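[Q] Does anyone have a clean structure-token version of this?
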Amino acid sequence: MGYQHKLNLFTSSVAFVNVHYFLNKFDRENKRGLLVGLRKIVSICQVNEAIIDLALNSNLKDFEDAVQYYAARAVGAQAIITRNLKDYNHTDIPAFTAEQFLKRL
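[A] Here you go.
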């Protein structure tokens, strides 16, 4: 799985649900196929009680980003790809925009 079989890609179930929500607005006809395609290259991190508890008790200002961060830590992620770099300034996992990350490959 993953980008050109070189990277293991993960997302949380929360992000997968968010993608579904946005696809409803932009591409209702193809959303299932797009999600199936995404699922073929991306593994899903668990978001369980422990992740939620860590996010609720964290110093991260944005709760959803805190959930993503702790889910990423749980799978040993080496980077987080996000549009919200500032929300991950004080974490131990480096954060990149998609463009920044792809330039590093």
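[Q] Thanks! Anything notable?
[A] The first strand starts at residue 9 and ends at 12.
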